[in-house]
Structure prediction request, 103 residues.
Amino acid sequence: MKNGQCRACGSHEVRSNRNRKFPALNTITLTVGSSVARYASLDTYVCVTCGYAENYVTSAEDLEYIRENWKPVGVRYDNSDRTPENGHRIPEQELISRVGNGE
Ligand SMILES: [Zn+2]
Prediction:
């Protein structure tokens, strides 16, 4: 998505609010303490052809907080559920062939 191409449908009609001039309302709650709450802003990318959307935490400080405080998901090697039909996810090899190497 960040490279301007939709990973779900291949369209180049991807828009982003990353250059917005107002605070992001789209956030993740990182922690809620007794006196302070902490949120990470999300940059959103939307494909205006199919509606697929992705969010990214972009602040290095927020990413470091998450790295230190959230639990790892771990790696699954079973890719059988990753098809465009059931989850808008594309097997890695197909994705690489569609968009070239990397974002
Ligand atoms: Zn799309």
